[in-house]
Give the backbone structure.
Amino acid sequence: QIQLEESGGGLVQAGGSLNLSCTASGIRFSANAMGWYRQTPGQERELIVSISRSGDPYYYVDFVKGRFTISRDNAKNTVYLQMNSLKPEDTAVYYCNRILPLSTLTLWGQGTQVTVSS
């Protein structure tokens, strides 16, 4: 079964940057489009960026466009999220997973907390 391990979160001031990493195992990583999701307290988990199997980003939610960049290294089974110009409203727990309907994604990693102070 899939295992996901996110890392790289932390506390940063507004305007700062973070680079998140997520390593996957238990799946044929290169055969899966991947995405970063986020969840804030009281809110549903939502997809914010995604990347194709070959490494082409193809979706960015409006509020991260121009600030976040997704990439992947299939040799390392790892997907990254470079987060620049962070805002307090980016504060959330960030998760990675495959690109599938959310209702079918039953296995998640522990996520990584990103906290942006004003």
The chain has a mean pLDDT of 96. The longest strand covers residues 18-25.
